[in-house]
Design goal:
alpha/beta; single chain; 22 helices; 5-stranded parallel sheet; globular; binds flavin-adenine dinucleotide; about 35% helix
Length: about 625
């Protein structure tokens, strides 16, 4: 057997632990056996069909296993495979959006030169601010096009938000294989839901492998960026270990993330409190919770993720909840990836590709869950059939996980619709609440005393440590750096003078030429798209397309027109009215996706995912103004 020292029993264990849909697709791609195409998706296989599939895969692997990759199949075959994956015929829009998901090409989604690359003029350089996921992907896009770039990173290493968040049990809550970059094809995640430390190592590995490390300047903090209209470039004032420096770049890409600024809550009496108050994004290395009384304020993704681990260590844990969350179970959360499955990834050509594809497939059809169905509501439904069914299932889940404890159930079932907020994953949170040494507190906090927390009913709970898992200032895009565009326009002042941060397709703002944001205002897709890691690639490819056009046409500026920006935002506001999060059923006032000051969706792009994706893959050049600098134009 090529490249392995495995026997039939080992291969069987591998297949049984694997994603059977991916097994079927890889096997079909390798063999073309029509019986495989006739099978239903894995969830609908009967025992006989399942066993037949497993046997077919084992027999094929006994003869053919080996470390090979498959080329991208021709379009019709790829489409057939993708239809088989979900058991449904997809439309052209969906095919276009998902065709790179199985990642057969070397650099899926990213763009390269189609023919010979034009000469890159002196001084045409891209400054990328931030070296988290998005900054690294943008850098790889520049590498691919051969465009000079440098990355400025205020921290001392790669990792972005994963460097900052080192709280107990920090890990991804989307399966690792969807949280990886499609151009790195051989990473061995040790767990199905990687821990923060492993995500940091992953990003460091990718940055080194693809040449980004050499162009990254750590401990470089951008303070101010000013567009020089005479020279069509940005001047960047940067704090460095050698003191302040001024750098220049033709193009600036902000990849500074959404979660750079921890949100602090002001609690009456916090000066008097004698214990420690910590934010998860500032977790002290020396903090041991062994034998301590700990309060956790906040039950978003972070607050919920840490409770199980803290409860194991602490003597007593208090969980302060203001708004209950819809919390969903995740299969394989906390489990290691079996060595047999690693073997399969390495030796079953196509399996890695299709397991990635299948891991992302649950996201394909989520749009119906986040939009209201007026007809359904008229008949007495709450939101739409899917959302109401999910609400019922999750309510049952709460009952089961709390062992039917009515005192908990009454306070844990939300009164708004699922998917109105970022979905939260259950890593044993409900069960932790049933422990004798854990108390769920839902009375509002009145103040801190010297030794504890007093709630509105006058009860004081004595604590040693308070964890404020209260999230981030997500609406403070780019903050605290200042960006000054044409005519001295300050981006934050311009946003505040209107109704908060906005952009065209989440990326560009008029009067700010040659400036792009990754993860800018209204860019987090609300549904039906690929994973976040893939979006970073889709967005970077858009910038790649703009760079290509500038270089091909000899343009020195690219800027979105005011009219395109205005009409895009008008359409966006209209589209957002359909989102459940903006309705009473969605609990509008309780949501970090919503800018409450301005009463509008702030973080999300309200579009159906494939429609949003097309805005990046098919650039609307009419929305953009490209101009050559006068002396450049005169020379050419
Ligand atoms: C605890 C936590 C868990 C998460 N889990 C998931 C998950 O499971 N799945 C998922 O899809 N998403 C998850 N996310 C969302 C996550 O933010 C994104 O997936 C992704 O990591 C963001 O990458 P980024 O590069 O856009 O931003 P970041 O990772 O935040 O990187 C931005 C970088 O910019 C740097 N920077 C900022 N300002 C400046 C400046 N002025 N000068 C120089 N450098 C600067 C920062 O130091 C940072 O390194 C999670 C977020 C958090 C906080």
């Amino acid at each position: 057997m090529g490249g392995t020292k495995t026997d039939r029993a080992y291969i069987r264990r591998a297949i049984e632990a694997a994603d059977l849909n991916a097994v079927r697709l890889a096997l079909y791609q390798n063999t073309g056996d029509p019986d495989l195409a006739r099978l239903p998706p894995a969830a609908q296989l009967d025992d006989g069909q399942r066993e037949w599939l497993i046997e077919q895969a084992i027999s094929w692997l006994e003869e053919n296993a080996g470390p090979r990759s498959l080329p991208e199949p021709p379009e019709a075959e790829l489409r057939q495979l993708m239809n088989l994956a979900t058991g449904e015929e997809m439309g052209d829009l969906e095919f276009e959006a998902r065709r790179e998901q199985a990642a057969f090409r070397k650099y899926p989604f990213l763009v390269d030169w189609d023919g010979e690359a034009p000469r890159i003029p002196d001084g045409f350089e891209v400054a990328i601010i931030g070296s988290g996921f998005s900054g690294i992907v943008m850098a790889v896009q520049c590498e691919l096009l051969g465009v000079p770039y440098y990355v400025l990173e205020r921290q001392a290493e790669f990792g972005g938000t994963w460097n900052i968040n080192r709280y107990p049990d920090v890990r991804v809550d989307t399966i690792s294989s969807t949280y990886e970059l499609s151009f790195e094809k051989s990473y061995r995640w040790s767990e199905y839901f990687a821990r923060g430390e492993e995500v940091r190592s992953y990003l460091d590995h990718v940055a080194r492998k693809f040449g980004v490390r050499d162009n990254t300047r750590f401990s470089h903090d951008l303070k101010r960026a000013t567009f020089d209209e005479d020279r069509d470039l940005w001047r960047l004032e940067v704090d460095t270990p050698d003191g302040p420096q001024t750098l220049e770049a033709k193009i600036v890409v902000s990849a500074t993330g959404l979660f750079a600024n921890p949100k602090r809550i002001e609690l009456e009496g916090d000066d008097a409190f004698e214990g420690r108050i910590v934010h998860p994004a500032r977790w002290p290395e020396d903090l041991s919770l062994e034998g301590k009384r700990v309060a956790i304020i906040g039950n978003g993704s972070t607050g919920i993720q840490m409770v199980g681990k803290i409860a194991e260590d602490a003597e007593q844990t208090y969980v302060f909840q203001r708004t209950p969350q819809w919390i969903m179970p995740r299969e394989k959360y906390g489990l290691p990836v079996e060595p047999e499955v690693h073997w399969l990834m390495d030796n079953f050509p196509g399996y890695w590709n299709w397991s990635r594809y299948m891991a992302g497939a649950p996201l394909f059809d989520t749009h119906a869950l986040v939009t209201t169905d007026r007809d359904w509501q008229a008949e007495g439904g709450k939101v739409n059939p899917g959302s109401d069914a999910l609400r019922k299932d999750l309510t049952e889940y709460i009952k089961k996980e709390t062992g039917g404890r009515q005192d908990l159930i009454d306070r844990l079932v939300p009164d708004y619709a699922p998917f109105s907020r970022r979905p939260v994953v259950d890593n044993g949170w409900y069960r932790a609440l049933t422990r004798d040494d854990v108390e769920l507190v839902t009375d509002p906090i009145a103040r801190l005393t010297e030794t504890g927390i007093e709630t509105a009913d006058g009860t004081v709970r004595e604590v040693d440590v308070i964890v404020t898992a209260t999230g981030f200032e997500v609406v403070k895009y780019l903050h605290p750096a200042r960006f000054m565009g044409r005519g001295g326009t300050d981006i934050h002042e311009a946003w505040e003078a209107a109704d908060g941060p906005r952009a065209w397709i989440g990326m560009m703002v008029p009067r700010f030429p040659n400036f792009f944001m990754l993860y800018g205002p209204n860019s987090q897709p609300v549904s039906s798209g690929p994973s976040q890691a893939t979006w970073f690639t889709v967005w970077s490819a858009f910038i790649g397309r703009c760079l290509k056009r500038m270089l091909t046409e000899g343009a020195s500026r690219i800027e979105v027109t005011q009219s395109a920006y205005d009409s895009y935002n008008e359409a966006l506001d209209e589209e957002a009215t359909k989102l459940v999060m903006m309705t009473r059923e969605g609990g509008i006032e309780k949501n970090y996706y919503v800018n409450n000051e301005h009463g509008r969706v702030q973080v999300n792009a309200p579009w159906y995912g494939p429609v949003f994706q097309r805005m990046f893959s098919e650039v609307d050049w009419d929305a953009l103004e490209l101009t050559a600098k006068r002396e450049d134009a005169a020379r050419s």
